Amino acid sequence: MATAIEFNHVSKLYRLGLVSTGTFREDIKRWWTTQVRHKEDPFLTIGETNDRGTKGESQFVWALRDIDFKVEQGDVVGIIGKNGAGKSTLLKLLSKITAPTTGDIRARGRIASLLEVGTGFHPEMTGRENIYLNGAILGMTKEEISRKLDEIIDFSGCERYIDTPVKRYSSGMRVRLGFAVAAHLDPDILVVDEVLAVGDAEFQKKAIGKMQDVSTSQGRTVLFVSHNMASVRALCKNGVLLENGIVRQTGTADEIIDLYLKTSADSELRDHLSTTEIQRNKNTLRELEYTEVRILNDVRNVSTEEPLIFNLKFHRNNRSINNCQIGIIIRDEFDNHVGSYYSQQLALPSDTNDFEAKVVLKNHQLAMGIYRINFNLSLMDFVAKCKNYDIVIDAIQFEIKYLDKCHHIPFAHWPFSGRTSYQDAEIEIYPLKS
Amino acid sequence: MSQDTHGEWTTIIKPKESLLSINLKELWDYRDLCSLFIRRDITTQFKQTVLGPLWFIIQPTMTVLLYTVVFGNIAQISTDGLPQPLFYLAGVSLWGYFSGCLGKARGTFAGNAALFGKVYFPRLIVPISGMVSGLLNFGIQMLLFGVVYCVYVFGGLPGGDMVSTNMTALLFPLYVVMLAGLGLGFGIIFSSFSTKYRDVALLLNYVTSLWMYATPIIYPMSTVSSQKLKLIMQLNPVSSIFEGFKYGFLGAGEFSWTGLTYSFTVMVVLLFLGVIIFNRVQRNFMDTV
After folding, report:
1. Which residues of chain A neighbour B109 with C-beta distances below 8 Å?
2. Higher-confidence residue: A137 or B155?
3. Average pLDDT of chain B, as a whole number
4. Which of A200, A218, A228, B250 is deepest in the core (most CB within 10 A)?
5. Taking the mean position of all CA atoms in its chain, how far away is CA B109?
6. Chain A closest-CA separation from residue B13 CA (Å)
7. Cross-chain residue pair A107–B2, CB shorter than 8 Å
8. Beta strand residue intervals within A16-110, DSSP E
9. Could you give the count of Cα atoms lying within 13 Å of A322 in the half-sphere of its Cβ?
10. Could you tell me which residue, A389 or B6, shows the higher pLDDT?
């Protein structure tokens, strides 16, 4: 297979902050060193890795650094990564919207990029006129558009409005019309940014179908950026994972997606939350409240067989409360409620207001994957009315990583329509020793 | 360069291009886009108006009336003995076209940032299409000029006998080309300089509005008596075009081959420099705009 696109050590440097007098000074300095003294650009050397979350030293960041990979002809490559990983910058370089700082990109064939649908629509012009205008902006000739006009109108589903100015269209109709034009481009290489996430469900299905059609039956090379892993999985053969402006990994789409999901969850694995970090549900009485929650297992590495052991500290604000129940609710990475445990009513020792509880959940029955836990403090009174004293949200995140025995339980086989109510547990409350 | 055996690379995107790599073929490939931009400019100009294209005529008529009252009657500025409406109409139409080209080109980067940020096409298409779409407006004003001309010359209105047309009027197409070229040249240079520092845009706004008064529109060149001032006026490359036009069609004005050659040279140099600078800026302007 021939190579369709080749990225050769491509980097892109961006300047942070505002353009102002300071920038002007830098420009003079840059011009002096590079043009007059013929030395290397002084600002190129001080760029930092593009990590959105951390505070940097330098005003310059590498939005992309040393990107080097090839795309085969006819391949459909998904580019994934977190916000700010450099996906869109990469597409912008390839679409010639802005030039790389160093390195070069080589490609074979006509490149069409779809970074937005309906680019250049003029609100005063009719749908038909805008099809021509938008098509030409995307690189089609008038003759090509005329040839496909009926198809485009049909695909957009806006036939009735086609001679009405676009300003009267609903936003959904505008998107449909824009995508319809783009879908009828005939490039050798198609570059698509997150544009399929718009429109209604029916149209999204149609759009994905069209994309599949373009890539599989017509054999075009497609670069596709999306946060929607399902559509990446459906469309792409291969994937590239970007992280802070560098290529973390290339491989098949499935491998890359799994790696991405794992890394994005990995960074959030945590075994405890202290008072200041705890996030709570606001609609609680707070007569009892958690001060610290902790899991004693290794959150990165929990087996299917080992009991989950929790250490929970809480404080009593209202002395008249003598009993409570402790609840533990486990959710999976898609936020499905998969299991819960509610203790019996437990008597609280009266000689202190600070307590510690140790909970051991045996036989948790969780399959491999990533889970989050909410903790409750509540009391079910005689009229079966539940008083919620405190609910801590997503306090702990852990991963069930390996099997002790051949004991993988698929979600579908869980009792109680996917939820487990744990019975096999030990719980013990004692005064907190300071 | 490439080790690959499957034919040449068709696109190579590099950090820097040589100064003169202007891709005329690419510009030609996008000619349909250019014509659609022109159509867009023309058709959307008077959408949802009752008078529609009549506005093409109303605008210059009102300006000329105003000039006749203010400059002609109150300030009593000479018009070289020519009928005032005819004199002003000539200047207003020519200036309208020139400043239209200049304005369109000047706003290329700042006004199209959103579009340029999403899709690539040769950026020069925008100022070029602006230059062409301005021709319609200009053409209609020239028709109006023709009508007023006929009314004065053949209708025997006072001052009509002062008007004499000569062979240099045949240079008219050249005048139009020069106005367009100068407008485009200045415009794309201004536009390139104002992408990063908006100060330039603010300064240029001011400069273009003053420029009109440095051009013989409301007064003829002959009224400038100081030789020094006259020399400065002649450095303005559009002056000779205005004077040449008025001389050719109306018979009063300072026609000068030297002046026209100077203007033409300025136009060629400006266009050349302009395209080079514009080309350089367009590669990275999205990062600083």
Report:
1. none
2. A137
3. 86
4. B250
5. 18
6. 5
7. no
8. 48-49, 60-72, 76-80, 102-107
9. 2
10. A389
CB contact under 8 A, B4 and A93: no
Whether B13 sits inside 8 A of A116 (CB atoms) is no
**C-beta atoms of A95 and B115 within 8 A:** no
B8 lies in some domain: no
Question: Which residues have CB under 8 Å from A225's CB, separation 6+?
Answer: A78, A79, A80, A87, A88, A91, A192, A193, A194
Q: Band of the pLDDT at A42, cuts 50, 70, 90? A: low
* Residue owning tokens 């409750």: A376
Rounded to the nearest integer, the mean pLDDT of chain A is 81
As given in the structure block, the two tokens for residue A281 are 């549900």
Smallest CA-to-CA distance from B238 within B202, B272, B213 is with: B213
Q: Which residues pair with A78 in a beta bridge?
A: A224, A239
Residues of A with Cβ-Cβ distance to B289 under 8 angstroms: none
Choose, out of B33, B44, B289, the residue to mutate when testing the contact with A (most A CBs < 10 Å).
Answer: B33
Residue among B12, B40, B120 whose CB faces A104 most closely: B12
Q: Is residue A26's pLDDT more than 80?
A: no
| Domain-embedded: residue B126 | yes
Q: Residue B253: which domain range?
A: 24-288
Whether residue A19 and residue B196 make contact (CB cut-off 8 A), yes or no, is yes
Amino acid (1-letter code) at residue A5: I
Whether the ipTM is more than 0.85: the answer is: no
Give which of B194, B200, B219 is closest to B110, Cα–Cα. Answer: B194
What does the pLDDT read at residue B284? 78
* Tens digit of each residue's pLDDT (9 = 90 or more) over A221-237: 889 888 877 778 888 88
Is residue B10 included in any domain, yes or no? no
Nearest to B284 among A94, A99, A129 (CB): A99
User: Which segment, A98-102, A263-267, A362-366, A402-406, is predicted with the most confidence on average?
Assistant: A98-102
Q: State how far the Cα of B221 lies from the Cα of B230, in Å rounded to an integer.
A: 8
Q: At what angle do helices B84-106 and B55-67 cross, to 10 degrees?
A: 120
In the predicted structure, residue B16 carries a pLDDT above the cut 80: no
Check residue B46 and give its pLDDT: 78
Give per-residue pLDDT as tens, A105-144.
Answer: 999 888 888 888 888 889 889 999 999 999 999 888 999 9
CA–CA separation, B4 vs A430, rounded Å? 73
Domains of chain A: 73-110+187-265 (3.40.50.300), 275-431 (2.70.50.60)
- At A415 the pLDDT is 38
Residue A314: its H or E element: strand A308-316
How many domains does one find in chain B? 1
A109 in contact with B at a CB cutoff of 8 Å?
yes
Read off the pLDDT band of A148 (50, 70, 90).
very high
* B176 min Cα distance to partner chain A (Å): 28
Residue A381: is it exposed, middle or buried by C-beta count within 10 angstroms (0-12/13-18/19+)? exposed
